[in-house]
Amino acid sequence: MSIELLLQADLTKLKRPEKEVKIKRLSELFGGAMIFKLRAVSTDEVSGLQNMTFNVQEQSVDISELQIQVVLAGIIEPELKNAELLAHFGVPTPKELLMKLLSPGEIKGLYDKISDLSGYGKDSVEDVKN
């Protein structure tokens, strides 16, 4: 049954999920809705980010850095790599811009939203009752 279902699948539906979220504090601070458009990260992106944040000496992933990198990979808008935006905030990299704009809790909140979009949520897989 599963093979037949997969063979009949409309492959155009296999897009990474997206979602828009509002950053309440920035919206109030800047006087308008500060909307971030997020997208799920792919399996390859997650693997690369885990490798990038792996600390060889400690033999572990730096969780804080992984969360920041996942958020950077998952934000579609605003375009944090925009040179004019970076110059306006006086920072050289998107990571520094993210850290200047958002609080640690907001970064964690975006990480959680991107993780859910990426299938890490508790409701992404369910048991089948026999």
Task: Report on the architecture of this protein.
The chain is α+β, with helices and mostly antiparallel strands and 130 residues long. It has one domain (14-119): rbstp2171 (2-Layer Sandwich). 52% of the residues lie in helices and 13% in strands. The strands form two sheets. It has a three-stranded antiparallel sheet. A two-stranded antiparallel sheet has the order 3-4. A hairpin with a 4-residue loop joins strand 3 and strand 4. Helix 3 (43-52) packs antiparallel against helix 4 (63-74) and helix 4 crosses helix 7. The radius of gyration is 18 Å and the shape is globular.
Please state roughly what percent of the residues sit in beta strands, choosing from under 5%, 5-15%, 15-25%, 25-35%, 35-45% or over 45%.
5-15%
Query: Number of folding domains?
Result: 1
Named CATH architecture: 2-Layer Sandwich
Weakly predicted, low-confidence segments: none
In the CATH scheme, what's the topology name?
Answer: rbstp2171
User: Cα distance, first to last residue?
Assistant: 16 Å
SS field, number of helical segments:
7
Instruction: List the helices and strands in order.
Output: HEHEHEEHEHHH
